[in-house]
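Appendix B, record 7
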Amino acid sequence: MADYLPHTDDELRSMLDFLGLASTEELFNAVPSAIRLARGLDLPNGLSEPDILHRFEQRAKRNTARSDQMVCFAGGGAYDHELPPVVKALASRSEFVTAYTPYQPEVAQGVLQAIFEFQTMIARIYGLPVSNASLYDGATALVEAVNLGVASSGSQRVVLSAGVHPHWRQVVTTFAAGTGHELEIVPLKDGLTDFSAIQGTCGVIVVAQPNYLGGLEDLASVRALCDATGAIMVVAADPVASGVLKTPGSFGADVVVGEGQGFGTALSFGGPYLGLFACTMKEIRRLPGRIVGETVDVEGRRAYVTTLRTREQDIRREKASSNICSNQTLMAVAASIQLGWLGTEGFAEMALACARGTRYLSDKLRTGTGATLLHPELNVFRELAVRTVKPASQVVEEMAARGYLAGIAASALNGASDPSLADEVLGHVLLVSVTERRTAEEIDAFAIALEEVAQ
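Structure tokens (predicted):
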């Protein structure tokens, strides 16, 4: 903590003497009096660290259920994956603690190499040749993918599956109001996207894999539709699923985006998270954000630098298809550490454990009456859409009293209505997720409690 201690009196005096000032008040004389506070902030006196911790512990005990004592079956885009201690230990080292891409390669080879390794891993996970150094989150990455696709195809028509996470669709809709993209939301039929009515030329077609209800989409048919309509194929893909499924790139996706929170980032009350973005070499000049490349220095030694800078908004100005010139370095470094720690076999085992746990829970729910599968015939990976007799939001509250983060009510994501679910069904759908952290005993107990509460 020595790097963050306040300045000493001697240091302040030395600074003031250097500036030729008598006091710190004189230092701030340049600030107009009209915008200064008339009096000091009304703040309590400072406390020692132990006293602060004690105060927060006492307040935490007033909660009816502590989140760290609850068993998490919530998902919906953010997942309770295992976070190995090695990730925190290494990612929190001072040489890595930055949220920004280093501009000076001569003093930042370690961070640049970590980002380069991150890009390599994401490219392999998604089955595409190039990845960027990350974006802010999955929703931001999807917006950037749509912008890239429109610029590449020359068509403003964007066909968006209702199976894409509702929050992501809302973000795309918000940005489209400024860019002029013509959005068409395609509804789901029996839990999967129904593209049968799509005809004519399209600029971009977006599908989620799996979709937010858990269903595994037919990416081969989406590729065929893109070929027929001239569209860029964008897949919003769960990266963990690549441990057991064929990669989106192997189906011919042009761009793949996703949320990387499951790799080394805790749930953290909603962020900061990690946007993933990969594409074909054909689109590399439109790839948003930073790219770290491998080269050699003047002595012929391996070195890493930011590369292809002419792609970026700060240089291309109005010709650029993106206005993002940054990334989430710290989260990308954490993801690199976790993926490196897992290795190829560990990554596959993690994904397989999620798939098996989800299947185990779905089998438990097939015989229930209070909580049943919304689409029993769907192939799923880590997410289940469960239909409850009671309103799903009420089920979430009652399950919390029993020690479970039971999931997310679909109505909390969608609002009053949504093309992915009929209005009469929406309020009774609970999204439940199973990660590798859940044991068979936890799933058994959860299924029993859910059946009792949901009726």
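Remarks on this record: The chain has two domains: 67-84+343-454, 85-336. The mean pLDDT is 91.
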